[in-house]
Write a structure and sequence with these properties.
Blueprint (H helix, E strand, L loop, with lengths): L4 E4 L3 H12 L4 E4 L4 H6 L5 E2 L1 H9 L4 H6 L1 E3 L1 E6 L2 E6 H5 L3 E3 L2 H15 L3 E2 L3 E6 L7 E6 L2 E6 L2 E4 L17 E16 L9 E4 L5 E5 L5 E8 L9 H11 L2 H6 L5 E15 L2 E2 L2 E3 L5 E2 L7 H20 L4 H4 L1 H23 L6 H17 L1 H11 L7
Parallel strand pairs: 1-2, 1-12, 2-8, 5-14, 12-19
Antiparallel strand pairs: 3-7, 4-7, 5-6, 9-10, 10-11, 13-16, 13-17, 14-15, 15-16, 17-20, 18-19
Helix pairs in contact: 1-6, 1-9, 9-11, 12-13
P-hydroxybenzoic acid (PHB) binds next to β15.
InterPro entries: FAD-bd, FAD/NAD-bd_sf, HB_mOase, RIFMO-like
Organism: Verticiella sediminum
EC number: 1.14.13.2
């Protein structure tokens, strides 16, 4: 097979890039190691920045998102048993969209299928070759048969554990990493959300987050030890622990029910530099990871894709500037999101080594944050997504 772009990975980054390239008349194939059902079964992000919403509209797949997504004007911070609202719309004139990553991925998969665009699921032994030449190749096996794709560029959208970044010579890559000493235990339930907007909780027992997927489906998280096991958590134990971390009003309002998904995710900050190696370009989790506290992971993937789509479109029009600056443009935005995600995580979680002093500093910062318009505005402009030009 020969295409202009070989995209590795059918997560949000790969699918969104494929849709945008199609709109620009650029041929691409997506090669994914898992089945569609497996990809859709992963329960992940829930908050879309306006930039991501706009990109879905440009890609022509925003219809259901606008019909079923929930627009939120703000969020709440809960500490010392009290909730404080941060009003995004009043402070920075922007909002966020609550629409699960699963639904966004489903919309992109459905659109790709309807257009009959080439997508290989359950590809085995995917490998990338010769990306330091003008003739990169991808090989894979499907149903026991070997296949090869010749292309102009390879888009590495294969996530943190993918093959693309792993194929780059280690001396060509510099990585930065911080692993956090706790995880998030998440539960999905068909119960009405406890509040109209999200609630981020700083509590002596640990962080908690009340999120949602719709008016009838909720997503909750509690901070748990890194070595904890999901088998240790019955639904009842989860609900009891969540209640202990909520303010009184939310604890009384909480509607519990059977979990339809329950899992523990580790938290890390990670960045690989640069993001381009000849004809291989990394986008999304393949190049960086953020702790989900700032709701940035999916949105960063979308902003990388925006830059990559523009760079590839310009390349085929004979202008190489955006391609030559792809990595630095992405990284300028990535590092600001990494900082915000690290800051939100540091502010809201219990760190084993922080001690009483660390706890008092967190409380002082939260008090300052909710009583200073300047501090609240800073949180708001980062949470809704910084402008692309910056
Ligand atoms: P993805 O990892 O989504 O997709 C990569 C794709 O590449 C996968 O389908 C994978 O199967 C495929 N792949 C991997 N190796 C391959 C190979 N060798 N060959 C072919 N295909 C290969 N973000 C938030 O904003 N909020 C959250 O609450 C949140 N929660 C998360 C919870 C968990 C457990 C995880 C892991 C991440 C979470 N994230 C969250 C971040 C997440 O949403 C990512 O940012 C988002 O999925 C990034 O999308 P992609 O870059 O497309 O990577
Ligand atoms: C989610 O709904 O899964 C979610 C929302 C906001 C976050 C993290 C996760 O910061």
């Amino acid at each position: 097979m020969r295409v202009q772009i070989a995209i590795i990975g059918a997560g949000p980054a790969g699918l969104l890039l494929g849709q945008l390239l199609h709109g620009a008349g650029i041929s691409a194939v997506i090669i994914e190691q898992r089945s569609q059902e497996y990809v859709l079964g992963r329960i992940r992000a829930g908050v879309l920045e306006q930039g991501t919403v706009e990109l879905m509209d440009i890609a022509g797949v925003g219809g259901r998102m606008h019909r079923e997504g929930l627009v939120h004007d703000g969020t709440e911070l809960c500490f010392k048993g009290e909730r404080h609202r941060i009003d995004f719309h009043k402070l920075v004139g922007k909002t966020v969209m609550i629409y699960g990553q699963t639904e966004l991925t489903r919309d992109l998969m459905d659109a790709r299928r309807a257009l009959g665009l080439p997508t290989v699921y359950e590809a085995a032994n995917v490998a990338v070759h010769d990306f330091d030449t003008a003739h990169p190749r991808v090989t894979y096996e499907k149903d026991g048969l070997a296949h090869e794709v010749q292309c102009d560029f390879i888009a590495g959208c294969d996530g943190f554990h993918g093959v693309c970044r792993a194929s780059v010579p280690t001396d060509a890559l510099h990585t930065y990493e911080r692993v956090y000493p706790f995880g998030w235990l998440g539960i999905l339930s068909d119960t009405p959300p406890v509040s109209d907007e999200l609630i981020y909780v700083n509590h002596e027992r640990g962080f908690a987050l009340c999120s949602q997927r719709s008016t009838t489906r909720s997503r909750y998280y509690v901070q748990c030890p890194l070595d904890d096991k999901v088998e240790n958590w019955s639904d009842e134990r989860f609900w009891d622990e969540l209640r202990l971390r909520l303010d009184r009003e939310a604890a009384e309002r909480l509607v519990t029910g059977p979990s339809i998904e329950k899992s523990i995710a580790p938290l890390r900050s990670f960045v690989a530099e640069p993001l381009r190696f000849g004809r291989l370009l990394l986008a999304g989790d393949a190049g960086h990871i953020v702790p989900p506290t700032g709701a940035k992971g999916l949105n960063l993937a979308a902003s990388d894709v925006r830059f990559l789509w523009q760079a590839l479109e310009d390349h085929y029009r004979g202008n190489q500037t955006a391609l030559e600056h792809y990595s630095e443009r992405c990284l300028a935005r990535i590092w600001k999101a990494e900082r915000f995600s690290w800051w939100m995580t540091s502010l809201l979680h219990r760190f084993p080594d922080n001690g009483d002093f660390g706890r008092k500093i967190q409380e002082a910062e939260l008090e300052y944050l909710v009583h200073s318009e300047a501090a609240s505005t800073s949180l708001a402009e980062n949470y809704v997504g910084l402008p692309f030009g910056e």
